[in-house]
Write a structure and sequence with these properties.
By secondary structure, this protein is mainly beta. The protein contains one helix and 32 strands. It comes from Pseudomonas mangiferae.
Length: about 375
């Protein structure tokens, strides 16, 4: 187990450096380009959430449910805030190293821990409803449809827990790849399906009631001689819009799949470990090398590509009004035009970095910096 974890960390280090197994020289991150600021962001409120992402690589992402936003730090400090004012509604100290956060739905706030636990809190009060033991670390938010809670563990198992009690309903076994990135994407749970991306470059859909396979689709094929070259993790999570499931793999492809059948609707070569966004018939991808690309869903061709932020360890993108927003390792939030990818705005959120995907609800964008700074922003 320790060797496997070490291999995972090694793979992640290679990604973060933007290098490959045959690199001879590591290039530094690109300098910030000068931009003409067309859009300005106003801070509505700011709140400090404990120690944020912590010293090691974690990807804790806030979640919004109605008028509330929920966030957790690495040490298990979970908070509920009014998403319009930033007022603290409740705070809970779990005294556990949280690594999968935050899932929310059906009156529950769900987090996973490095100790292999899933903890459910009451969304109104923060009181603990139940906790359950799973097979290994939980590095992504659990998901729920109100009937079951589905969690993907670091060892690529999918586990369904009863939403009412936390007791196990089913477990689906997968064999992880020999070498993987440190992390998993969060599963998606509908009324009928539990869908997850695996370290082997496959997407699998299970019957949510019994955990039986409904379909399986390979998005990326491992290639190359070394195990590092053959890493094709789906770490950035899945995105569901309508009946289309969007996915991107490391050293593989970005693709759109039909949710019910798993059929590939379109695909394009891409390498991403953070995920995609979708809007106006286009898909936006933060690539591992620091390029942001817009893909036309109908033709799978690139509409534009912005490579000015090479090796700056970009977060997953998110659509915000007419723009695409994403963070970088120095804590800058960048806005580019959906039309042509040009820079239109920039705001520094957290000098420790901005790794978590921005969260957009209506006309508000929420950015969660690595040090724990949670900021609500609006376009001026």
């Amino acid at each position: 187990m320790m060797a496997w974890r070490y291999a995972a960390v090694l793979a992640l280090a290679a990604v973060a450096a933007g290098c490959s197994s045959n690199s001879t020289k590591e290039l530094p991150p690109a300098e910030l380009p000068k931009i003409t600021e067309e859009v300005r962001l106003d801070t509505q409120w700011s709140h400090s959430v404990g120690d944020g992402q912590g010293e090691t690589y974690n990807l804790l992402v806030p979640a919004v449910d109605g008028d509330r936003i929920f966030a957790s730090d690495i040490n298990g400090d979970v908070v509920a805030l009014d998403r319009f004012t930033g007022k603290t509604l409740w705070e809970k100290d779990l005294d556990r190293p949280v690594s999968g956060a935050v899932g929310v739905g059906s009156g529950m706030v769900l987090v996973g821990t490095l100790k292999g636990e899933v903890i459910a809190l009451d969304a109104d009060s923060g009181d603990e409803k139940w906790r359950a033991r799973v097979t290994s670390e939980v590095l992504a938010p659990p998901a729920t449809n109100g009937d079951v809670v589905v969690v993907q563990t670091q060892d690529d198992r999918l586990i369904a827990l009863e939403a009412s009690s936390g007791s196990q309903r089913w477990i689906y076994e997968n064999t992880p790849a020999v070498l993987t990135l440190r992390g998993t994407g969060a599963p998606i749970v509908t009324n009928n399906l539990a869908v997850a991306g695996l370290s082997t470059g496959k997407v699998i859909a299970l019957d949510v009631q019994r955990g039986l396979p409904v379909w399986e689709q390979r998005v990326a094929v491992p290639q190359g001689r070394s195990e590092l070259d053959r890493v094709v993790d789906i770490d950035g999570g899945l995105l569901l819009a309508g009946d289309t499931l969007y996915v991107a793999t490391y050293q593989g492809r970005a693709a759109g799949l039909d949710l019910e059948s798993g059929r590939i609707l379109w695909q394009r070569e891409a390498s991403s470990y953070v995920g995609v966004a979708q809007g106006f018939g286009n898909v936006y991808v933060s690539l591992a090398n620091g390029t942001v690309e817009s893909i036309d869903e109908r033709s799978a061709t690139a509409l534009w590509s912005n490579d000015s932020l090479a090796r700056r360890q970009l977060s997953a993108p998110e659509v915000f009004s007419s723009y695409v927003a994403f963070g970088d390792f120095e804590g800058y939030l960048h806005l580019v035009s959906q039309v042509d990818g040009r820079f239109v705005g920039r705001e520094r959120i957290d000098s420790d970095g901005l790794r978590a995907r921005p969260l957009v609800v209506g006309d508000m964008l929420y950015a969660y910096g690595n040090s724990g700074k949670l900021v609500a922003l609006k376009i001026r």
